[in-house]
Amino acid sequence: MESKQLETLLVDVAQNGVVTVTMNRPEKKNAANATMWDELRTTWDEIALDPTVRCVVMTGAGDGFCSGADLGGGGDRQMHQLQSMNMIHRTVQALYSIMVPVVAKVNGVAAGAGMNMALACDLIVASDRARFSEIFAKRGLTVDFGGTWILPRLIGLHRAKELAFFADVLSAEQAAEFGFVNKVVAHDELDAAVIEWTDRLAAGPPLALAMTKRLLTLNASADFAAALEAEGMAQTVNFATEDTREAVKAFIDKREPRFEGR
Predict the structure, then answer these.
(1) CA–CA gap between residue 197 and residue 200 (Å, rounded)
(2) Which CATH class is domain 4-202?
(3) Given pLDDT bands bounded at 50, 70 and 90, which one contains residue 76?
């Protein structure tokens, strides 16, 4: 995968396999129009098929993460009509199916579909300037971009209803208290905090992390017996990999393991 600039996205590929996808409509607080939905879906599909990718960072240009769908102007108003929701559905499914860890670097407002995009990532690191809102009710809309499925699983049903019904704006600290933000840092420390985590993730065992991510996601709604069976199958795969053998050897040699994803 190569670094590139699209109409609404910047895609940066680091040597350690960390791909940073930046939504690039800062004049609109990175509100997603039809072009952005299409470019996000295509980019996430490409990432999902690239074995060299170790970790993904999602962020926004300027002083916002993503303010949701762009409801202004021409055809973009159709994005929330029932016959057009298929585009949003396919986009969030593409994000949710990425096997490697995805970190949301939230530098500013994350509202509506923008908030749910962050929730669909695996980890959220937020600037102390970040703001979160399930803004839909204030626009006469229902929650979308997978929020009705993801949010209750993160914070519980009643708290999810509170955020959806009232559409309040939460500070980064309040979002952490609600339980859907992992870490809040000073705004000028955001880049360093995300790099520290992504470097660690990129150095981890790719196959094991991918299977752990999938198990945690699937087993959130599975019964205990099914979860144990899925864990057993994944662990059987792990024990046959070069990465596991390397980890054992590194432990014996008292050094850091060098994982290669095989």
Answers:
(1) 5
(2) alpha beta
(3) very low
